[in-house]
Amino acid sequence: MSLRLPQNPNAGLFKQGYNSYSNADGQIIKSIAAIRELHQMCLTSMGPCGRNKIIVNHLGKIIITNDAATMLRELDIVHPAVKVLVMATEQQKIDMGDGTNLVMILAGELLNVSEKLISMGLSAVEIIQGYNMARKFTLKELDEMVVGEITDKNDKNELLKMIKPVISSKKYGSEDILSELVSEAVSHVLPVAQQAGEIPYFNVDSIRVVKIMGGSLSNSTVIKGMVFNREPEGHVKSLSEDKKHKVAVFTCPLDIANTETKGTVLLHNAQEMLDFSKGEEKQIDAMMKEIADMGVECIVAGAGVGELALHYLNRYGILVLKVPSKFELRRLCRVCGATPLPRLGAPTPEELGLVETVKTMEIGGDRVTVFKQEQGEISRTSTIILRGATQNNLDDIERAIDDGVAAVKGLMKPSGGKLLPGAGATEIELISRITKYGERTPGLLQLAIKQFAVAFEVVPRTLAETAGLDVNEVLPNLYAAHNVTEPGAVKTDHLYKGVDIDGESDEGVKDIREENIYDMLATKKFAINVATEAATTVLSIDQIIMAKKAGGPRAPQGPRPGNWDQED
């Protein structure tokens, strides 16, 4: 009797080469195990004392960061269940800017504790129902835990309350300098609210960052306008600062238009050759004179600048700057109010822009061109000039600034100004409240709700671990501070008890009001929503079916024997 080999299920349904993983093979447990690997990797990067990771992507670029969204974006992840969490962190990054590590760690912890529930016999449906009930309860409780609100969004000191904790979680120790830079740059571009309660419009693209090697972070500064990491093309390098200067922006080349087809010109003598070149010179001279007669003192070109055109522009005393990036060209038009012109010729008065200062500066060893507006006016773009010793450090600082700017964007939302206690104080309080809610819930769903509360313990525990504190000592002290009310204390004083990452107190607990450590309500709500949805999505998957990858046969990787051009 011949041996009968088992076949893949649905072998006649899909093409050859597909893979299928179902619950019969322990698919959920395997997905949780795969996510746990990523969860452990991001765990040590959370908080102000979080460790950095060195990532070498598929292009060989070295990235040093502790931001979960950046790490996951650069890694080539193929597991479909893990990709669900990657998309969740990306969504948090796009919408709120901050809280990406919280999304990844909380979602991973929710799946870790769900594994215990599955081993106890609970079905995935019951766990999902319990998690959704706990999520709705948590969002309601967060509204009751608000301890402050930023009312004046144009006040620089109020902005610092919200920007500083965001940046300190990425670049601890440099948060004072960076938060001052971000708040100053935001104050330059943020319009003043005309009415009480009006929310000003803020565009994150209005804050630009220019990185210049050399010096230290304390040498960084903010320019009310734009900075280009190149100098002008001609002899004119700067314009006087006693008046406003007219600016013309061209997206076409500053040169004679050439035909697409080649032509031949027959010249009989030297005079014909001189007359031929004179025609070009007169045409270019006439164009540049028309531009100069309009009072233009600065030209920004998005394409090439011909030598002949540059010669006449130097003669008329016009500064010429080449900006190859169409995005930078668009931002410069916003700064000076100019209209980009696709044709070479004299612009109309409505198409010209105005700028107060155009000058070339030497910062470090680089020459940069600065377009600066008046101090009393609201600029549409502000630029932060960063100084540092290494390119990797500058890139990481830029990502921290981007998070701070994105947090300002979240602040401009209707409920963005409300603040929650930071340093793990909110999570400790949520554990107590969600656990009590689970005890009031009948049936098996209370097990899932209680485990949902247990998952929040990962935040204060990780903050204490990365700070080098004894977790077994800090967590009990933190629970006691939230459950025991001191004599004469205000009823809500326990909400402000968080993890002391500096180790100034023996108990590892401090009042977060001393350091103004707050979290944004909108960011926390969005992170809990996204993390819970990602975890329940993974739990709801009962089978993974992966088709065969597209593509033909791969070329041999090793060297061919013999000479390189030898025939087969």
Q: What do you see in this structure?
A:
This protein has helices at residues 27-43, 68-74, 80-95, 100-120, 124-144, 156-168, 175-189, 270-293, 307-315, 326-336, 391-411, 425-440, 445-455, 458-466, 471-483, 521-539, and strands at residues 19-22, 53-56, 62-65, 148-149, 207-213, 221-223, 225-228, 245-250, 296-301, 319-322, 353-355, 357-363, 366-372, 382-388, 418-421, 497-499, 509-511, 518-520, 543-546. By secondary structure, it is α+β, with helices and mostly antiparallel strands. The protein has two domains: 19-147 and 421-546, GroEL-like equatorial domain (GROEL, domain 1, Orthogonal Bundle); 225-374, GroEL. Strands 10-9-8-11 form a four-stranded mixed sheet, sandwiched between helices. Strand 9, helix 9 and strand 10 (319-322) form a beta-alpha-beta unit. Helix 7 (175-189) packs across helix 11. The longest helix is centred in the middle third of the chain and has 24 residues, at 270-293. The protein is elongated, with a radius of gyration of 31 Å. Residues 1-7 have low confidence and may be disordered.
